[in-house]
Amino acid sequence: MAENRALKSGFAAEAHNKIKSKYDPQLAFQLLQWIKDLTNEDIDTDGDSKNFHATLCDGKILCKLINILQPGTIPEKKINDSKLAFKKMENINHFLEGAQKLGVPSEEIFQTVDLWEQQNLTAVCICLQSLARKAHKYGHKSLGPKEAEPNIRTFSEEQLKAGEGVIGLQYGTNKGATASGIVFGNTRHM
What we know:
It is a single chain. By secondary structure, the chain is mainly alpha-helical. The protein has one domain: Calponin-like domain (Actin-binding Protein, T-fimbrin, domain 1), CATH 1.10.418. It has helices spanning 11-21, 25-39, 49-56, 60-69, 85-101, 112-116, 121-133, 157-164. Helix 2 (25-39) packs across helix 7 and helix 4 (60-69) packs parallel to helix 5. The longest helix is centred in the middle third of the chain and has 17 residues, at 85-101. InterPro entries: Calponin-like, Calponin_repeat, CH_dom, CH_dom_sf, SM22_calponin.
């Protein structure tokens, strides 16, 4: 995992420290509490980054979460109990695919290494937060603000034609005024 890597230095260290500074332990606590409530797993809900990583890094709880929101999204035979790193990372990848199926936009999906190697736990929180907002669509308690619902409007051909005859004020109007006769300032001397 990440402990076998060389320490970052220079710009890379600055960038990584900036990413780590955006991690919100309070949000992580809320997300872990939400996961605990849905999955009925006995997990530590401390929002500390080390606990957050340790709780979610094998991906099994995340896969269980997806299957609770939408049963059968990840087949049980695909979820790995193995101690091998690549099998755990595969679980995380199954979660990410399932999250996209449930409507999490691709901009809010994290990379597997963001969680596995603790590269960007903030991105993991963003993904889980997005998934938590969509939980009400699947009959479960959601977390965060309610998402907007589409308000589709349909207009008849008659209504659309009526709008073509109106000249909007954004096109401008001068109500018959002209610029003739305006003398402003002194004349130009050559």
